[in-house]
């Protein structure tokens, strides 16, 4: 009779898995897997582990969980193969170290339905000891303890922005301003997305000497990518160009913003015709529902608002009443708290919608920060 050991469930006698199961799943002892779609122990969904043995009587794999250091029994249908057999080093449970890293959520109990969900790190809140993660499918930002966030880009990001090119005289297919499709290596699964070439033969000071990226591309959602001179990363696009000339400050427009299923009305309060060289958004919009958004429109995603209200006074300036360093009092809905303005047109993806900005960030005298 099997005895229960600390950190393990009692396991039946091991055997070899049926040939059909092993060949279909390509799994064997030592394979690295991810647990998925469990109905009862949902807190284990998204956890990674190593196959220890095949349990003939139960028709299940014994899986040693890499993070929890215990062994569980799982049906083959609830396992996803993540890595080859007997990896030379364990990379599945490395923790994120910076923003814009692809992660998956695991081991959540209060929100167990999110286990296995992938997202992108936004920032680490040192005071709370949690990562802000923007989920790929819903764009929702959730705050997670480090042990509930696992870096998956090490395994799954086959294509990334690591500079590898040295010959800056090599011919390039695309010029600055060209419309292209690039692999967005910040999302899983990786896919091509539309963008515009902003620079060629680029390098950052932090990169090793002599290494370059062939292209710097600004995607249509504003994300900047470093792209290799390789058709696996970049190809020609037939999408319409980013339109920074048709509309003027003060135009009332209808926009298809990425985070909404519907077209949203708003007004242009800033236009940057040199957006590509500066790496900024072509337009700053004040939406009718009250928020401000940076926007990269095409002729298909921003149009004149034919149903606008004529004669209605609209504030069309991006000029603000206060400057950085000025003392102000900020309302919290009940009273006013004194503080100092520290930043204008502030963006924080851990708290706002994608590409949303607020006019002021204020450092309050009690040590807190306010955005208004």
Features:
25 strands; 9-stranded antiparallel beta sheet; 372 residues; single chain; 6-stranded antiparallel beta sheet; mainly beta; SH3 type barrels; disordered N terminus
Structure at a glance:
Residues 1-20 are annotated as: Disordered. Helix content is 4%, strand content 37%.
> Tell me, what is the CATH class of the largest domain?
Mainly Beta
Low-confidence stretches: 1-14, 18-25, 83-93, 153-158
Number of strands: 25
Structural class given helices, strands, pairing?
mainly beta
Give an account of the 3D structure.
- There is one protein chain.
- With 372 residues, the chain is mainly beta.
- The protein folds into 5 domains: 19-83, SH3 type barrels, CATH 2.30.30.30; 101-151, SH3 type barrels; 178-236; 251-313; 326-371, no CATH class.
- It is built from 3 helices and 25 strands.
- The strands form 4 sheets. Strands 17, 18, 19, 20, 21, 22, 23, 24 and 25 form a 9-stranded antiparallel beta sheet that branches. Strands 1, 2, 3, 4, 5 and 6 form a 6-stranded antiparallel beta sheet that branches. It has a 5-stranded antiparallel beta sheet with strand order 10-9-8-7-11, with no helix packed on it.
- Strand 14 (213-219) and strand 15 form a beta hairpin.
- It is globular.
- The N and C termini lie far apart (66 Å).
- Mean pLDDT is 80; it is low at 1-14, 18-25, 83-93 and 153-158.
- Residues 1-20 are annotated as: Disordered.
């Amino acid at each position: 009779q099997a005895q229960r050991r600390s950190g393990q469930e009692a396991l039946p006698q091991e055997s070899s898995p049926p040939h059909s199961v092993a060949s279909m799943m390509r799994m064997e002892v030592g394979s690295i897997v991810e647990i998925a779609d469990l109905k009862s122990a949902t807190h284990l969904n998204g956890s990674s582990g190593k196959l220890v043995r095949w349990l003939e009587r139960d028709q299940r794999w014994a899986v040693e969980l890499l993070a929890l250091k215990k062994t569980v029994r799982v049906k083959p249908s609830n396992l996803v193969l993540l890595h080859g057999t007997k990896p030379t080093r364990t990379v599945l449970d490395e923790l994120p170290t910076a923003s814009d890293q692809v992660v998956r959520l695991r081991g959540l109990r209060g929100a167990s339905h999110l286990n296995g969900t992938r997202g992108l790190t936004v920032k680490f809140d040192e005071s709370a000891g949690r990562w802000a993660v923007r989920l790929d499918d819903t764009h929702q930002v959730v705050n997670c303890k480090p042990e509930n966030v696992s870096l998956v880009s090490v395994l799954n990001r086959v294509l990334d922005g690591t500079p590898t090119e040295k010959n800056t005289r090599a011919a390039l297919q695309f010029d600055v301003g060209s419309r292209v499709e690039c692999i967005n290596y910040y999302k899983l699964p990786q896919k091509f997305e539309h963008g515009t070439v902003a620079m060629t033969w680029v390098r950052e000071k932090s990169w090793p000497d002599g290494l370059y990226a062939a292209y710097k591309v600004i995607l249509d959602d504003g994300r900047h990518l470093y792209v290799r001179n390789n058709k696996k990363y970049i190809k020609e696009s037939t999408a319409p160009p980013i339109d920074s000339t048709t509309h003027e400050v003060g135009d009332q427009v209808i926009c298809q913003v990425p985070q909404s299923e519907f077209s949203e009305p708003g007004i242009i309060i800033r236009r940057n015709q040199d957006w590509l060289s500066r790496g900024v958004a072509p337009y700053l919009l004040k939406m009718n529902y009250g928020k401000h958004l940076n926007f990269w429109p095409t002729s298909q995603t921003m149009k004149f608002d034919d149903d606008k209200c004529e004669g209605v006074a609209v504030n069309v300036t991006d000029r603000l009443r206060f400057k950085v360093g000025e003392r102000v009092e900020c309302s919290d809905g009940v009273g006013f708290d004194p503080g100092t303005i520290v930043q204008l047109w502030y963006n924080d993806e851990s708290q706002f919608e994608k590409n949303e900005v607020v006019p002021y960030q204020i450092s309050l005298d009690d040590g807190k920060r306010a955005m208004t």
